[in-house]
Amino acid sequence: MKALVAVKRVVDANVKVRVKADKTGVDLTNVKMSINPFCEIAVEEAVRLKEKGAVTEIIVVSVGPQAAQEQIRSALALGADRGILVQTDDEVGALEVAKILKGIVDQEKPEVILLGKQAIDDDSNQVGQMLAALMGAGQGTFASEVKVDGGKVQVTREVDGGLQTVELALPAIITTDLRLNEPRYAALPNIMKARKKPLDTKSPSDYGVATGTKLKTILVESPADRKAGVQVKSVDELVEKLKNEAKVI
Ligand code: AMP
């Protein structure tokens, strides 16, 4: 059984992002880029399914600039078998990514499709759900446990106030939550081996998708600076300020 994993190239989670002076986006000059953390969890889960014998081949796909090859190679070093870069320098919206992934699903026929629950750059949380709709497949979103058994997969989902377990017929979409697993670090020999694994380059038009037409970011702003706090001398003063200044009691 094949697994397809979608990985997005994003600004590393530890980097403090800077907004460009003209406020059209985030300044990516000399900024460390990484696999979106939730996608890394998706890769790890696919590798664990392969180690358990439930999956035989893992294909990693990324839609983005040529440099996104680095993130595909990182996923190959973690244990994926081959990669597909769908190369574009255009801004790509969630529906376009979902349509491209649908094109890859049609060609590769994976049974398990793993995505992150959201990309930490645009926080959109849409691609997995859209892909499930385009495929007419079941979806287990926000997964904290995944068990593949025969032609089905059981996904335990993190929902408000608890856990819900759903059973999905394959092929199915799974989007990963933080507690699904702890991704391993790539061992040096595996980083070397990953350089030799196959990586195909395609373009969105290979899947009938036109990019750069539907989405344009027009304004990006940093959060307003927080004002310094005030120290009060007594409980009475605090109550007075809460009542008359903040007007919250
Ligand atoms: P989003 O819906 O944009 O928050 O992203 C959810 C998940 O969809 C990500 O964690 C990835 O698994 C996948 N995804 C989103 N954008 C891309 C992209 N450009 N290339 C590959 N996968 C993507």
From TrEMBL:
Keyword RNA-binding present in the record's keywords: the answer is no
> In Gene Ontology terms, what is one molecular function of this protein?
electron transfer activity
The source's superkingdom equals Bacteria
**What does the UniProt keyword field contain?**
Electron transport, Transport
Entries under InterPro entries matching the protein: ET-Flavoprotein_bsu_CS (IPR000049), ETF_a/b_N (IPR014730), ETF_b (IPR012255), ETF_beta_N (IPR033948), Rossmann-like_a/b/a_fold (IPR014729)
Q: Which GO terms describe its biological process?
A: carboxylic acid catabolic process
What does this protein's UniProt record list under function?
The electron transfer flavoprotein serves as a specific electron acceptor for other dehydrogenases. It transfers the electrons to the main respiratory chain via ETF-ubiquinone oxidoreductase (ETF dehydrogenase).
Write out the similarity annotation: Belongs to the ETF beta-subunit/FixA family.
Query: Per its record, how is this protein called by name?
Result: Electron transfer flavoprotein subunit beta
